[in-house]
Design brief:
Elements (H helix, E strand, L loop, with lengths): L4 H18 L4 H8 L3 H8 L7 H11 L3 H5 L8 H8 L2 H4 L9 H10 L1 H17 L4 H15 L5 H13 L10 H12 L2 E5 L12 E4 L5 E5 L4 H16 L17 H18 L2 H12 L6 H10 L4 H16 L4 E9 L5 E8 L20 H15 L7 E9 L5 E10 L6 E10 L2 H6 L9 E5 L19 H25 L10
Parallel strand pairs: 1-3, 6-9
Antiparallel strand pairs: 2-3, 4-5, 4-8, 6-7, 7-8
Helix pairs in contact: 6-9, 11-14, 12-13, 13-14, 15-17
Length: 511
Amino acid sequence: MIIKEENIRLIFGLKLRQLRIEKKLSLLEVSKASGISVSYLNEIEKGKKYPKANKIAQMAKALDVSYDWMVSMQLTKNLSPIAELIKSDLLTNLPLEIFGIEPADLMDLISNTPSKISAFISTLIEIARNYNIGVENFYFSVLRSYQEMHENYFEDLEEIVDNFRAEYPSCQEMPLPSSVLIQILKDTYHYQIEEQDFEAYPELKGLRTVLISEKTPHLLLNKNLTDTQKRFALGREIGYQYMRLKKRAYTSSWIKIESFEQLLNNFKASYFAGALLIPRAQIVADIKKFMHLKKWNEQELIGIIERYQASPEMFAHRLTSIVPRFFGLKQLFFLRFNHQKGSNFFHLDKELHLAGLYNPHSNMLHQHYCRRWVSLNILKNLAQQQEDQEATPQLICEAQHSNYIGSDNEFLCISLARPVLPNTSMNSSVTIGFLVNDEFKKQVKFWNDTKITKRKVGVTCERCSDLDCAERAAPAKIFLEIERTQKIQTSLEKLKQDYSTGSPLTPKGDV
């Protein structure tokens, strides 16, 4: 495995600090013994500098170790998990600065309490292995945290889109035609664009786009894409070029994530496309009008989506940016489910939670999501309609009041479902859930419309306390185990209390 230069610096600095501490030497003492300045030694220990060979020899002599030991990538056994973390590129690939963390600060933390940090990292690695959590899962989690920190609204990206629209007056038209986007890519960025059926490459038929990165960018669009999907793909390509984002994926679906920067750039380009196709001024006005309706009207919402010729996911994701910022409704979640027609399995592959509300949420334990969720029911309803009708429904919409069992939280959930193209055997739903609080009731006039179904819901069947649920897809084994443990704890406490008072159970004598 090739180790990056910055990772070599980090490991060398960690070794030097640990060796110095083991020998109970200060930086000043090592400086005097080696003839290397304190400031330079400090930069080496923080992973900022890697010394030349003669300096390493001086340090090795001062610390009474061999030169070969100093330059090896091996760490002591108790530090090996830290080395594994460093070699994995997580530390160097993550833009720690977006969370206000300097890499040097992190290295200081690791260096100051190496055994404890090493044990903690080792535990995380073991959990990741047991639950098959890869680096990609970690990157996606960090990206979600980044979005949640900013309530999924980025003023700098919105301004970039405004500037782009000002430079290209043809982009003022709504809905924005794909022909305009194609012309910009061709004229400004010298793209070659063609539709492709990927017949010669059957494994690629599920991809929406492939970019052949040459001197002249060659963009292949799956010929089965809808115009909506095509416009989003084109808008994202413009976003990459206009913002000069170099590290990127070259396919629409993730095949392999090489770095967090690649994932972050994809998010920025996608945000650009969403903001370009659904301008904030127009969508704010449309949503305000919709919220002021006295009665729930799914056709009105579908009409807004069709006005922008947006996909349900594009529209719902845009709402998660706009609603918190311009309507003050910051406590919401976003979910995307995929469902293979004919199966009883539902895969939650995208989620976003604002204001720290994590019901519902995904799980890595292959548990069964609550079948009372509107997100799942709408997929079952769509599949049924597809069986009953000759023409496939392109978009359906449902709403539900969801009261979470064991919680005071109630959400008004709005779900949209459609077939996934080009994969005709798959359906997808996106759901936005708004916490029903005083601010929500003030903003959304139809919140208590009796047309909207009310249901008590859980998170997963395995954890649900409603043992008589007719929709249950699996036994409540986790809930029952937790309940059993709590009963044992309660009995133990009662036993202790009874013995302390001598009643009603009294000791029969010593053994």
